[in-house]
Design brief:
Length: 556
């Protein structure tokens, strides 16, 4: 069986100019990054602002398991299937982070015959957007420390510096560090921290900004520290905005590549969904809606994280109204939720399936709370049995969901036609009545409680003393009207990664909270979630190499 990278490297790509010409984008409207990658120019984006919007379809999933779900693969395959049906469709994805590529995933471009290409370029550097974000973030950090060194005009309390440096790599030893050691000219000695680039506020700002003016306005609002009176000090206060915007100017432009079947794909931005808001950029999604009749996008991890944040943060801020949701599951993952070890998942086990399908049930229930029609798809594996598939089909249809098998990994667009037809049927027959889960005027603790109880299924929320103090301060400073971005494990509906299925009788523990005023949300840290991941005992980096012919190998 061929690996994903072997399939991708054997593919014959069309020049990106030809791919984009098919959807009405001229060569003079793009900025080429080689033959197969391009950025859409600012003029091209602005010239389409008054065009009608297409239909917006979100792809999400049950909680991830070691058995695999295939959310990106389904997204790509569904876009290819729309093309097979003669529909004008564009896929809108996030850019992969180097952290998980070298850490656990080994790549994030879909799989099998449902991939976006060139996959090596996408996974490794791409068009440099993440480097620009990392540089802008660390420029802000350097200007902040220099401001203090040069007289501290803003009266910054060095014990209340909240801006962290970032790196797009899993590096646990940088979580907590000491900076400023050495001579007087080397700065003030203080504790500092790193987060992974995808968890940085600048990543969120870039992904939520509508244009360059909005980007600069958001950058100016970012809180970098507090002064001795407890008042916020912003990036504007330390004169960091203009230079950061200069670094981010090109990164603001959406990137275009293609699928193996030459369906256009916008890939732009990449916040994680467990520690950030988990969606590609607003600019990419809105641009795609102007140039296609159907836009298929995804949100990270399970629907309890990515989809909730897509609805409550991205759609709220951008005024987006999704028309349908595709919820991805696998028989293997459902049986894993039912207690079957990974090595035994290939055997039929209807009892385990009945136990584990409660995870799918909760996600269906949650998605219906947002008023958007749901289509459930099973990402098909050769070990699935007819009885298992039929059981899931009947289960979903009994809950008012369209259902379809997906075979896009093996067959590409052809394997997604049944799913595409069910999505089209849902769009024609069911009206989306989308609304966020909560209103802006709810206090922060009520928003946290609403997500924890209604989406996670918790009995309640407990707060550490630090968390209570932080939330009280944020309310007093006027940030209480912002949505909450819950930082939570992706492996469970609860804040405990070991609780599979549909946990009951648990309490969500909030240990801290901080504002991302530029992004426009309050981050709420639960459980033991970290914003700088580490590497495992056998990271994917061990298996990635370049062979004697100059080909990259080992990317999944």
């Amino acid at each position: 069986m061929k690996t994903d990278i072997e399939i991708a490297q054997e593919a014959v790509l069309n020049p990106i100019t030809d791919v984009l010409e098919d959807i009405g984008i001229r060569e003079d409207e793009i900025e080429l990054y080689g033959k197969y990658k391009a950025k859409l120019s600012e003029d091209a984006i602005q010239s389409r602002k008054n065009d009608d919007d297409g239909k917006l379809i979100l792809v999400t999933a049950i909680n991830p398991t070691p058995a695999g779900e295939g959310k990106t693969t389904t997204t790509v395959g569904l876009g290819e299937a729309f093309g097979k049906l003669g529909k004008k469709a564009v896929i809108a994805l996030r850019e992969p982070s180097l952290g998980p590529c070298f850490g656990i995933k080994g790549g994030a471009a879909g799989g099998g015959y449902a991939q976006v290409v060139p996959m090596e370029d996408l996974n490794l550097h791409f068009t440099g957007d993440f480097h620009a974000i990392t540089s802008a973030n660390n420029l802000c950090a350097a200007l902040l420390d220099n401001h203090i060194q040069q007289g501290n005009k803003c009266n910054i309390d060095e014990r209340q510096i909240v801006w962290k440096r970032c790196l797009d790599m899993n590096d646990r030893v940088l979580r907590n560090i000491i900076v400023g050691l050495g001579r007087k000219t080397d700065g003030f000695v203080r504790e500092d921290h790193f987060v992974i680039t995808v968890a940085s506020e600048i990543m969120a700002v870039l992904c939520l900004a509508t244009d360059l003016a909005d980007l600069k306005a958001r950058l100016s609002r970012m809180v970098v520290a507090y002064d001795f009176d407890g008042k916020p000090v912003t990036a504007a206060d330390i004169q960091a905005v203009g230079a950061m915007a200069a670094l981010l100017k090109d990164a603001m432009k959406p990137n275009f590549i293609q699928t193996l079947e030459h369906t256009p794909a916008i890939v732009h931005g990449g916040p994680f969904a467990n520690i950030a808001h988990g969606c590609n950029s607003v600019r990419a999604t809105k641009t795609a809606l102007k140039i296609a009749d159907y836009v298929i996008t995804e949100a990270g991890f399970g629907a309890d994280l990515g989809a909730e944040k897509f609805f409550d943060i991205k759609c709220r801020q951008a005024g987006l109204k999704p028309d349908a949701v595709v919820l991805v599951a696998t028989i293997r993952a459902l049986k894993y939720n039912g207690g079957v070890p990974k090595e035994d998942l290939k055997h039929e086990d209807l009892q385990a399936l009945r136990r584990g399908i409660v995870n799918l049930d909760k996600h269906i229930e949650n998605l219906h709370k947002f008023g958007v029609p749901v289509v459930v798809t099973l990402n098909s594996f050769i070990t699935d049995t007819k009885a298992e598939t039929e059981y899931v089909k009947q289960f979903c249809e009994a809950r008012g969901c369209e259902f379809a098998l997906s075979e896009v990994w093996e067959k590409g667009g052809e394997g997604g036609i049944l799913l595409a037809e069910k999505v089209l049927k849902s769009l024609e027959e069911k009206q989306s009545e989308f609304a966020p889960l909560y209103t802006d005027d709810l206090p922060l603790m009520d928003k946290i409680s609403k997500v924890s109880k209604e989406i996670y299924g918790a009995d309640g929320v407990s707060y550490t003393a630090d968390a209570k103090k932080a939330i009280d301060q944020l309310e007093q400073l006027g940030f209480g009207n912002l949505p909450v971005c819950m930082a939570k494990t992706q492996y469970s509906l609860s804040d405990d990664p070991k609780k599979l299925g549909r946990p009951e009788g648990f309490t969500v523990t909030v240990r801290d909270a901080y504002v991302c005023a530029g992004a426009g949300f309050v981050v709420v840290l639960t459980g033991s979630i970290m914003t700088m991941p580490g590497l495992s005992a056998h990271p994917a980096a061990y298996d990635i190499d370049v062979n004697d012919d100059g080909k990259i190998v080992g990317l999944f």
